[in-house]
Structures are given as C-alpha cells and as structure tokens.
Design goal:
The chain is α/β, with parallel strands linked by helices. The chain has three domains: 201 residues, Rossmann fold (3-Layer(aba) Sandwich), CATH 3.40.50; 204 residues, sialyltransferase cstii, chain A (Alpha-Beta Complex); 115 residues. 44% of the residues lie in helices and 14% in strands. It is built from 21 helices and 21 strands. The chain has a nine-stranded parallel beta sheet with strand order 15-14-13-12-11-10-16-19-20, with helices on both faces. A hairpin with a 6-residue loop joins β1 and β2.
C-alpha cells in the first residue's frame, strides 16, 4: 500500500494551523517563544515507506521508529525506574518558644509520634497518581505531553527545552489546545522554559519552583527524562546544586508578623524613610565591611584609606571595627529579632554607636533605633510590612539573607559604580575561626558564641583553593551574584580571602588604587534620600490596614471551608491545601500583602503535614484528622495575631 506523503503533510499543516489559531487567543506567549530562532536545523521527517513521522535534528532522526510506541515505552520505564527528588521537611523546632510556626510543628509532631527520617518509603509513579509538580525534560514531538497530562493529575507541569525550534515542530504533531485547557483549571499551571545555557536554565526553573509555585506539594518531584542528552545532564547537575535552596527562603509567618508589627512601631517612631534615589557621583567609592575572618587582614589598609571611601559596616562587623578604632560612615542592620539589639550593645560602646548614622530595613527590631542618634530605614522587597506603603516608595532588591547583602544592595541602589568588599568571606578556612576577632560569636561569655561552624560544604575560594561555607552564607553568596547581574555597569572588587563570588573581581589590597572625591558631599547626598515625608501618606497606610483586616477574615473563612470538606486520603488533603495556597497566591489586594504574610509559614506547615500524612498513609496509618486540626489551630492563631496588631495600631 503506497503512502500519500502529500496528505500527511496536509494533515500536519492543518494541525499546526489549529494550534496557532488557538494559541493566538489563549496562550500567545507560547507562540512568541516558538518564533525565536537558534542555529539548530530542525524539522519533521516523513518515512516514505511507512508514513511514520520523526523529529529530525541536524540531519539525524531522533526516534528511529514509531514515535508514539517509543514514547509509551519511555513512560512505562519512567513509572518503573523514573528519577525523583525527595524533599524531607526540616523539622528543627529549637525556636518554638518564640516562633509560633515551630510551636505548631512541634505539637503536630507530638501527635504523629514518629519523626520523619531517611527511612521513608519510596513509592513508584503509577497511572492515576496525583503529582504536585512534574519536570519534563524535552518536548520532542510532544506525544509524551499529551499522555502524561491524561495519565496523571499534575498540579504544575514544567517543560524544559533547549531549542525553540523543537517547540515549533510540536505545533505540527500534538493538540496543544487539549494540553493548555488541562492546566487552565483547578488551580493548575503549565510553564515552558527554553534556554541554551543549561546552568541558567536550571537557575530559572529552581527559582520558579521556589518563589512562584506551591512548592510544598513537590515533596516528591519526578523528572521525566525520555532520552539521555548531555545538555539535560548538565541541567540536572546544576539543578541538583540548587535543590537545597528550593525549600528555603520562604520565611515564616512569625517573621512576617514581626515585620508588620515592627514596621508599624517604626512608623510611630517617625524614622526617616528611604524615599528616592539621589545617585552618588560617578567618582564615589564605597567600602562594604563584613564580619568574615579575613577582615583581620584589612585593618592596616582600612586605617590608611578610610577617608577615601564611603564606608558601610554590616551587622556584627561593628564590634571588630570598634575594637580597632575604626568608625564607618554608616552602619547597616537587617535582622528583626531582639538579638540584633543585644549583639550591638555587646559588641560596641553605646557612645560609639550614637556617633554613627544607622540604616536598617523596615522590620528592624524597634529598640535598635534607640542606639543611634541619626537613622533611616529602607523598604525591603517581598516584605509584608513594606507593602503598607504606597508603591511609589522604592524597595531594595536582594537585601537579605545576611547584612552584607543589605549593605551591598544599599550601595548598588545608591548608584556607587566602584565598590570594594572587605570581610565578606561567605565562608571560612577554619570552621573554628568563622568570624574576625572582636566578633560576639567568638566570645565565650555571650549567648552568640559558636565554637565551630559547619564544615560539610566546600566551595571555590576567591584567591583559589577551597573554603568551607554553610547554607546561609552560600545562599547569601548566590544572591550577591544575582544582584550584580542587574547592575552590570558596577565594578565590585572582592578583597576577602573567602568564597569566590561570581561577578566580583578578586583583588589584593596592594593592587587597589583609590581616586579622590568629595566624601562629605556624598555622605550628605546619601542622607538626603531619607525623609519623614512618608507621614503625609499615613491615611493610605491606615486604609491598607482596614482592607487587610477584611481580607484576613475572608481567608480564615475560606480555609475552614476547605478543611471541613470530606477527606479520606492524603491526595484529597493535597487538593484542598493547594486550593488554600492558590487563594493566598492569587490575592492581589494591597499589592499581595496577605500573600507575603502567609505564604512562607503556610508552605512550611503544608510541607510537613503532607509529607508525614503521605508516609503514614503508605504504612496504613491515617494522620489526616490530626493534620487538619493542626492547620485549623495555626490559622486561627495567625489571624487573631494580625487582627489584634491592626486594632492596637488604630487605637494608639
């Protein structure tokens, strides 16, 4: 029987036209991606003898057989042997006395009786499974996308591809309308990432899972990988490096509540706010001082050159500078707990502190401001308290997780084009010497003393070799790297004998050549960015609190509606938790303030509840009633805390 190749081509063209017409109306962004071009030669091959089609790349057939049968076999292999990431909750409850989130974790764990450990059950993927997130490596002809979208109930499907031409080829072969509509209901999402750099691709996917999705439902994260490919191996290698960050950086409800409560206190204190970007001159130089152990190598240089730069001390470095007789031009703090106050008064003389202008973020512990005669605060991006203010006020990007991130972010946003880093080690060569001398964490007589730091992680050093680091410092390092990408015209020189920071230029102090500029003028210019004029918008802030008050009550009612519905299995619990999360995520009132307040704490608790319920269910134990009770109690307490805080501010 002869094959009508022309008819096959006609059918393929018709499929493409239907896809294009649909996507133009419903998902034009997919068409825009498909229109991109690379140097890849890609097309559809039609076997003249059988009429079977294949994907042809650089002259080579990819499937070399019936692509639909091969795809089905690959999916069956995936169900038998498929690769999965497992995310076990971090159940450290040592701060349960001050963190309401951890107190509820602890109460639930006591009910569960059995703590989760590495001896968990690994269940294979099966037809009909509900999957929180699935990563699909490669589009190919797309048949697997149709099958897995029908075979499993996937909340978030992430498709990763190297070349846009392959997406374009799939327009001829599969029904994109059916796929798009599957992920356009029941709070599902589909996202396609296409990039030729596997490291950048992995970073984008990890960030998307961490910050844009209901991350907690991927406590099991399957990766569908139909074929071996060096590109996807590199992608997975880089993604694996970022896995630990995916379940971090969420924050906690307690943190965001402190932010709301303490921002309101700082408003009442009328602390001047960073309100506009008056840039420093192009000749101005900044020194950012961290508390890393290599700061000790810089004392002589700093003493000789402190008048040739605007100096920002960060966090506990102030204690070391105080003992060395060095005084910064500005001191930066970002932490919201009372330990910030304690570390300052233990680290330096109060009269010394009063003589230094301080800059801190809006959720700073309010008593910190009493230690400084001159002070100003900036709004932190992605912070609940910051969203009390009108959108016209600037928010600093990448100002956490360490105070060095805050100091560097401030200098970048102020317009410095030349910045030098000192003691910003982001690691340590000796785990017992994790800070510079004079630091409170090295003082055995303080609550901050830490005899030895984590030595399980090693990374490349700024001047070669390896240095130890910990999770927080490594996270801080990567965020510095990300911050520098949005300020590509800034030269940042790293003198620190610690971790290598991409985007900075390693430099020895003897190689530094500083130019003169009017330092006093620049300092006054920086101070002029801060003003009490925000108090003119106090009615707007009060109105936002009233709107938040009503939305908090609506959130409470919706959560209880979801939790009171009938649930017999963990997957039903996951559905309802996902609906609650989507309610939080889609809240746009007050620029999403409720989302900022609840997202982190909810994700942590959701992760713990789902993981334990799932593991218990596999063992034949029903933990759902205890999990539901825990979430109800958590919600009631959190809502009550916010309502009381709002009422207190209104009546003060």
């Amino acid at each position: 029987m002869s094959v009508n190749v022309q008819q096959i081509i006609k059918n393929l063209e018709a499929r493409k036209n239907r896809n294009v017409q649909y996507l133009q109306k419903k998902a034009p962004q997919i068409l825009e991606v498909a229109k991109r071009q690379s140097n890849l030669e890609c097309g559809i091959y039609i076997d003249p003898s059988s009429g079977k089609i294949d994907l042809q790349i650089e002259g080579k057939r990819i499937y070399n057989g019936d692509p639909q049968k091969i795809t089905m076999a690959q999916i069956e292999d995936f169900e038998r042997y498929g690769f999965k990431f497992y995310f076990i909750p971090d159940i450290n409850t040592q701060y349960k006395d001050i963190m309401m989130d951890m107190r509820h974790w602890d109460e639930f764990l006591n009910k569960a009786r059995e703590m989760p450990n590495v001896d968990y059950i690994k269940k294979p993927i099966q037809k009909g499974d509900k999957l929180g997130i699935l990563i699909c490596l490669g589009i190919g002809l797309g048949y697997h996308l149709e099958i897995i979208s029908k075979r499993y109930d996937i909340k978030h499907l992430i498709i990763v591809e190297q070349y846009p031409e392959i997406l374009k080829a799939s327009l001829y072969t599969i029904d994109w309308q059916s796929i798009i509509e599957t992920y356009s209901k029941n709070n599902k999402t589909l996202f396609i990432f296409i990039k030729e750099n596997p490291e950048e691709l992995a970073k984008e996917v990890a960030n998307y899972i961490q910050f844009a999705l209901n991350t907690a439902i991927c406590f099991i994260l399957p990766v569908y990988k139909p074929m071996e490919n060096p590109f996807y191996k590199d992608f997975l290698d880089e993604f694996n490096k970022r896995v630990s960050q995916i379940f971090s950086g969420w924050g906690f409800f307690q943190d965001e509540f402190w932010s709301l409560e303490q921002t309101l206190e700082n408003i009442k204190k009328e602390i001047p706010l960073f309100m506009e970007f008056k840039k420093v001159s192009s000749e101005a130089t900044a020194f950012i001082i961290g508390a890393g152990p290599s700061l000790e190598n810089s004392f002589d240089f700093l003493k000789k050159n402190i008048d040739k730069a605007v100096v920002f001390s960060c966090g506990s470095s102030i204690g070391t500078l105080y003992r060395e007789g060095l005084k910064p031009d500005f001191h930066v703090e970002i932490e919201r707990t009372d330990t910030t106050y304690d570390a300052l008064v233990l680290g330096a003389d109060k009269e010394y502190l009063k003589s230094i202008p301080a800059i801190f973020n809006n959720p700073i512990y309010p008593e910190v401001s009493t230690l400084f005669n001159e002070k100003g605060m900036f709004l932190k991006e992605n912070d609940a308290g910051a969203y009390l203010f009108p959108a016209k006020y600037p928010k600093l990007k990448y100002s956490n997780p360490t105070v060095v991130n805050g100091g560097l972010s401030l200098a970048l946003h102020l317009g410095f084009k030349k910045i030098y880093l000192f003691g910003t080690d982001m690691g340590y060569k000796d785990p017992k010497k994790h800070h510079a001398k004079g630091n409170v964490s090295l003082d055995k007589n303080t609550i901050f003393f830490k005899e030895v730091e984590d030595n399980t992680m090693q990374i490349e050093g700024n001047f070669g070799g390896k240095v130890y680091t910990n999770f927080i410092l490594n996270w801080a390092r990567t965020w510095i790297e990300d911050a520098l990408k949005i300020f590509p015209d800034v030269k940042v020189y790293n003198t620190s004998d610690g971790a290598k920071i991409k985007g900075t230029l390693p430099i020895r102090e003897k190689e530094i050549n500083l130019s003169n500029f009017n330092k006093a003028k620049e300092i006054e210019g920086i101070k002029s960015n801060f003003s009490k004029d925000f108090l003119k918008d106090l009615d707007i802030i009060k109105n936002r609190l009233s709107i938040l008050e009503e939305e908090i009550k609506a959130f409470r009612d919706y959560t209880f509606t979801m939790l009171n519905s009938k649930m017999n299995k963990t997957e039903q619990f996951m559905d309802n938790l996902h609906n609650i999360y989507s309610w939080i995520h889609l809240s746009k009132v007050n620029d999403g303030m409720l989302h900022l307040l609840f997202r982190g704490g909810f994700l942590h608790l959701e992760h713990l509840l789902l993981f334990l319920c799932y593991q218990k269910e596999l063992r034949g134990i029903n933990l759902l009633p205890q999990a539901i009770e825990t979430l109800k109690n958590y919600t009631l307490e959190a809502v009550s805390m916010i309502l009381n805080c709002i009422e207190k501010f209104k009546t003060s």
